[in-house]
Amino acid sequence: VEIKVMAYADDITIICRNTNLQPVFSNYELLSVLSGLELNAEKTEILNLTDSPRTVSNVLYLGQNYALGRVNHIKVCGVWIGDNENVVYERNVLDKIKIMEGIILSWRRRFLSLNGRMILAKVFVLSQIVFIAQVCAIKAKEIKKIEHLIYSFVNGNKLLYRPERIARKTLKPPKKEGGINGVDVDSFIKTIVLRQYVKAISNNPSLCAIQLSNSSVQDEIGDFSSNFLRTHYRKYLDMQFNIPNFDQILILSGIPIRLLMTQGNRAFQLVR
């Protein structure tokens, strides 16, 4: 059997302090020579994390020169990062809502029960924001929009964001209380945020230090990267829950869940 071409496709993310990128490409060239894995250099994107005015990086890879331009936004592990918060929020959150709307529209004419539509909303619609909610603070406006979208669909509306025949307060309680165990989107997102916060602060010393710091991380590569490294959910928790001395509460062993359970929001019950 003669194999003429064997192709591989994958993404590689490299963070480096040096503005001279030639050593990175030189090292990868050594890997290419030994393994046969070649980098698609012309599609390489560079996000500037420093204050360097450089807009183009010239590199030599496998005997060919490339002029790689700097970009303002880049997608890493499914999350957009960049130097403009509005653009980052649009791509991470607002674009996800558009995907949710598309899913709803594709199912709107199916003959499903209330329970069936709610299950569908939980599995296929709400799952779109599970990952992004762990790293990006979703604004209250968008949370209300997502919930309106879901309950408009659950009520059997053929169009998006239409009035609901059955009130949410009737659908949200568990079945034993006469509801359909409807999702509370605000509590759902807060639960994800709380879980991430507690997990990071308990198991990862580096993330713990970032979350407990009241100032930007001093990583010596510029203000933008410092702001990015600070977790979004720290700000989100401070803004949404208004828990006094929240950092001190979390670092006391055995206390966090007991104190969180005293709050009235469903998120504090779901986090257990």
Write the layout of secondary structure elements.
Elements: H1 22-35, E1 46-47, E2 56-61, E3 64-71, E4 73-76, E5 79-82, H2 85-107, H3 114-125, H4 140-154, H5 168-171, H6 185-203, H7 205-212, H8 223-229, H9 232-241, H10 246-251, H11 256-260, H12 266-270
How would you characterize the overall build of this protein?
47% of the residues lie in helices and 9% in strands. It has twelve helices and five strands. A hairpin with a 2-residue loop joins strand 2 and strand 3. Helix 3 runs antiparallel to helix 4 and helix 6 packs across helix 9. The chain is elongated and about 70 Å long.
Main attributes of the structure:
272 residues, mainly alpha, 3-stranded mixed sheet, two-stranded antiparallel ribbon, 12 helices, elongated
Helix content: 40-55%
Largest sheet: 3 strands, mixed
**CA-based gyration radius:** 23 Å
Oligomer: single chain
Which ranges are low-confidence, i.e. pLDDT below 50, for 5 or more consecutive residues? Answer: 215-233, 239-272
Strand order of the largest sheet: 1-3-2
Q: Compute the number of helices.
A: 12
Structural class: mainly alpha
- How much is the average pLDDT? 76
Number of strands: 5
Strand fraction band?
5-15%
Termini separation comes to 57 Å
Give the overall shape, derived from the CA principal axes. elongated
Written as H for each helix and E for each strand, in order along the chain, the element string is HEEEEEHHHHHHHHHHH
